[in-house]
Amino acid sequence: MSPVYFDHNATTPLDESVLQAMLPFFREHYGNASSRHEFGRAARQAVDDAREQVADAVGAHPSQVYFVSGGTEANNLLIKGVAARLKPSQVAVSAVEHPSVTVPVQELREHGWKVRRLAVDHAGRIDMDEAKSALREPTGLMSVMLANNETGVIQDVASLAELARSAGALVHTDAVQALGKMPVNFATLNVHAMTLSAHKIYGPKGMGALILDKRLDIKPQITGGGHEKGLRAGTENVPAIVGFGAACMLASDRLAQSSFNLEQMRGRMNQGLRTMGAILFGDGAERLPNTSYFALPGIEGETLVMALDRAGYAVASGSACSSGGADPSPVLLSMGVERELARCAVRVSLGRGNEMSQIERFLQALQDEIFRLKKLAAIAV
Known about the structure:
13 helices; seven-stranded mixed β-sheet; Aspartate Aminotransferase, domain 1; three-stranded antiparallel β-sheet
């Protein structure tokens, strides 16, 4: 039996139709999009078309879409670019943000900024009273991810944005995990900036976008050319941009059916996990339809991940960007989960290619591994 991939929050396979859309721009249409000749004009048209496709996917205008190398660059560009244009004050971020937000935010301390972490409840939702309290202090920027990459928990970004705007703060949301799994609309969310990434929606790695309010002025972080209207220097990666556009079209077209299928499979997954005594993190909160984050008390997450890998199932013990460390997930700790239980965390994130039969086989394999690991532990004692 072929290995089964259950780690779609880390990355997704490139869709075949996306690949086919990209190939001509490696081979025939290889011009530089800044060149004036026919080859360059063909590349520029492809970039413009993709910009429109990305904008359509999130209810934005093409002029608001700026292509970058991925979600990490987009988050860094926004945070550092905004901070460079404002007088240092407070920056507020949720306690469950991705490191590509938390690390650059911490760096702002060196430039006189104060960092306020917005607490979350046991399900990983931001406390609105906490947000209101934070915004009583002069705040330049609030950054809150739309959907968490580990738990799948969805934040009420629109309500938070309303609070932040009334306090005079700019609002940014990292929507990398949300796109393709739930409706995402830039205008409805009422934010000033949004981060997207192609490789989470069956597009190419190394490509993302920052969506900006037209009135927002941020300082470029990569300079030396007039690319992306002067905001991000560097020759456009035309094949990847084309792939991003194609992936956005597919994400929009398939959203309703894909979300339904994922939710059905996730429901069966969670049902099986509960019968095994698993603790489900974020249970009870609104979550992405594809994500199950759980712990089996007494079984280390890393141990279980390796055991399942040998059994033919690719799952994760947390965020792909922070795996490999010995410390438990900061997201779970922020939710009040005890450290020992947090060390037992395992994430299953489903995708388009998964089927209900794989869920059934996985649950049986998981049951077998639990039995085997407990037997080994008993022998060791």
